[in-house]
Specification:
The structure is a single chain. With 391 residues, the chain is an all-alpha fold. The chain folds into 3 domains: 17-181, Orthogonal Bundle (Hypothetical protein af1432); 207-304, no CATH class; 321-390, no CATH class. 56% of the residues lie in helices and 0% in strands. It has helices spanning 36-45, 48-52, 71-88, 93-102, 111-121, 130-141, 155-162, 176-181, 195-219, 233-242, 248-277, 283-288, 298-316, 319-341, 363-376, 379-390.
Length: 391
Amino acid sequence: MNKKYEDRQLSNIASHGNYSKGRKYKDSKLQFNRTEYQRDRDRILYSDAFKRLKHKTQVFFNTKNDHVRTRLTHTLEVAQLARSVSRYLNLNDDLAEAISLAHDLGHPPFGHAGEDVLNDLMKNYGGFNHNLHTLKIVTKIEKKYLNFDGLNLTYETLDGIIKHNGPFKSMSNVPKLIKSLEKDFNFEINKYSSLEGQIANICDDIAYVSHDLEDGLRSKIIKVRDLINLPIIDIFLQKFKNNKINDDKLLIYYLTNNLSNYFINDLVENSKFNIIKNEIKTIDDVINYGKQIIEMKSNTYKELLSIKKFLFQNMYSNKEILKQYSLIDKKFRFLFDMYTNNPKMLPLKWQTSDYKTKKNVTDAIIATDVCDYIASMTDSYFEMKSNDLRS
């Protein structure tokens, strides 16, 4: 492990790059005064999977609106929030940023609709989960270096990815990929991640609730009048009305900006309170505390959940969006069947076995290769391959 001392003092409960648990493979020396977590961040930024986020759906697809969010813009917004919170709490914002930038690399084309149908298609082979696929991308699929597959990220970044949705409560639910990684690192998967990992997790929720709401309002799938009885939003609506400004676009920005700030401010203040009250003074205290430390006050979190529920009922389950999802479902099944029945049609990069000899090539291997390939696609590439194979 190459030690590079950071030029700033971090809190004792921060994940300091100088004391990282390291990487699986011996790596080259750090350059340009970078820290270990900056190297992780840069490798994620330059990965093929990160580039493809630009053309992957967040919520809306086949839209002509240039301002609707994609996986890339959502990811950047999560990273920005995570950096800000980490910096304020004197934690390692480089690590929080790296985890945030990686958190959605495993999303397939067409957002949650794509994930749902891939999970169904893979039900006989363990299903599909975008968080687990993210881990597979950064440890196996990305091939950019001579000495190792994957990006050879630090223990701390991988730990944040593995525990993006919290620790595993039962070893029986731990996927094989994570168990295999345990041979190299003891991730203590039944415990919470670093504070930086916890920050990346909750900032993901704040970003998509606030910004999906903005996209819903801009698309007019959601109307401002629908928000009147939602907690905290009704207060912001009244404040805006008191300014006597009649500008719908400005109102949308006002609502979503204030909503994001409201949740972030509460998150910071309550997390500081948790740290002091529970005498969290070392990283070991963080890991062994047994509960999440980075969190909002319970009432504030309930407000977040109310808005999330509203979005599921009024936007994600909107008839027009579900109609589009239905069309996408058919195309996913067509592509999956086409490739699993004709695996030699897969690009060589995605053929993990020798399909020509057919030795030890099981249905599970073929299905997994096909799933990995489809999950890697952007929306536009998916449409192109679907159309090409149908013609």
